[in-house]
Inverse folding.
């Protein structure tokens, strides 16, 4: 081994990067508390990357019919560059309509469902709460929307998709795939 490589190995030049760990996410009426740090749902992607690290980006084309509909909801020019960002190792993702500002933040809870291009490779391993209570306890009180359960809190909408929407029994925590938090429209 060359001497230069030996010194790099001994003194950190080739040291493996420490994996980022998020221990807790608390969903509040004013956004998210990530390990105690307040984060707004409508955050610029650079702010989220400052917290979670570099994200994997997946871009989407918006056909003209969808663009008209989405611009009616979000404003002119707000859906010109839809991009989803994914933090694979953390089990976190977000949607943007314009490539720069998150319109929804998602937390992957289970691998038991469909996988899309933007689906995180791992599930979130920390604790998720809503106003300090276990997420499952709160989402269970939300409205059953056939394929998911929706809980509204102030200006936020929290949606959790069912792993098996056709399951007829009582839903347990493992019967949900993710939590998506967004600003309510209308």
């Amino acid at each position: 081994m060359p001497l230069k490589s030996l010194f790099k190995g001994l003194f950190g030049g080739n040291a493996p990067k420490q994996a980022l760990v998020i221990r807790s996410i608390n969903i509040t009426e004013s956004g998210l508390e990530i390990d105690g740090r307040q984060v707004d749902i409508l955050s610029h992607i650079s702010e989220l990357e400052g917290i979670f690290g570099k994200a994997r980006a997946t871009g989407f084309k918006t056909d003209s019919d969808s663009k008209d509909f989405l611009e009616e909801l979000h404003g002119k020019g707000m859906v010109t560059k839809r991009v989803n960002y994914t933090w694979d190792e953390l089990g976190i993702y977000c949607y943007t309509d314009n490539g720069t500002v998150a319109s929804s933040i998602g937390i992957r809870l289970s691998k038991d469902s469909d996988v899309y291009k933007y689906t995180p490779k791992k599930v979130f391993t920390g604790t998720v709460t809503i106003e300090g209570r276990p997420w499952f306890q709160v989402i269970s009180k939300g409205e059953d929307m056939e394929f998911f359960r929706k809980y509204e809190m102030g200006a936020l909408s929290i949606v959790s998709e069912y792993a098996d929407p056709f399951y007829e029994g009582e839903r347990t925590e493992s019967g949900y795939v993710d939590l998506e938090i967004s600003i309510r429209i209308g």
